[in-house]
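Subject: sequence -> structure tokens, single chain

Hey, anyone have a minute? Need the predicted structure for the following. Not urgent.
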Amino acid sequence: MNRTPDQIDQNNSAAAGADIRGQVSRAERREMWAWGNAVVVILGLTGGVVSLSVALLLKGTQTIFGLNLKLAVYGLVCLVVLFTAHMIYQHLHLKKIKRALAEQQIQAEVFRRLAMFDPLTGLFNRRFAEERIRTEIARSERKGLTLILVLLDLNDFKQVNDEYGHPVGDLVLKEFAKRLTQSTRAADLAVRWGGDEFMLLLVDCQITELSTVLFRLHGFAVSVEGKDVPISFCFGWKEFEPGKKMADLIECADRNLYINKASKKHTGNLKPMLVS
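Reply:
Had a minute. Here:
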């Protein structure tokens, strides 16, 4: 199966995030292992220092196995100091590595969000939606669930930009996106499809419920300089049929959208039109 560059970017972003999490986990295990060994070694060396010191002070023994006890004690103390210094260095080094990995993880999360979300509206973007549509189509075919794809296009959006400016246009897009999110369930998918066009993927939703979802979007307006500017939209929808592909679903919904737009059937008439 051929993949588009967008799909490859998204997969690479997810793989990079998983790789960084794996590196962080390995660094944490390495640090725990190092400190565990350090405790054992330092306790052993300290025990040796204490034992030799006791032999030197209480028993008056000056040598053991031909070794000068004072020199041995000094040697062990130096080893404890050097090993402790080495462990402090290792800790600082691992801390630096973990900090770098944490920064990479943040960057990977930023790239992941860029690959999935529209930065203006916060909705999922088209590249993510296409993957999700394919997944839901496969699930619908397996389980026999209903699946409805709805395309929505804001009316006279260019006129809003020309009359009130692009900041107001951006506000319209953000507020409409918020209303889309509020009007759907968590299982559904709200997407900024591109420009002033949006998409809803309604999972396990009956056709009779479609008008209810659209009605929640009706009567939308934004306040500009104390004046309410009404925003209307056109829509086209298509219910998934077994054996159909994503492209068929989108093409039919898009065709219905432009039929509605051409015939001026806006949200005042909530009866969806379907072209076979």
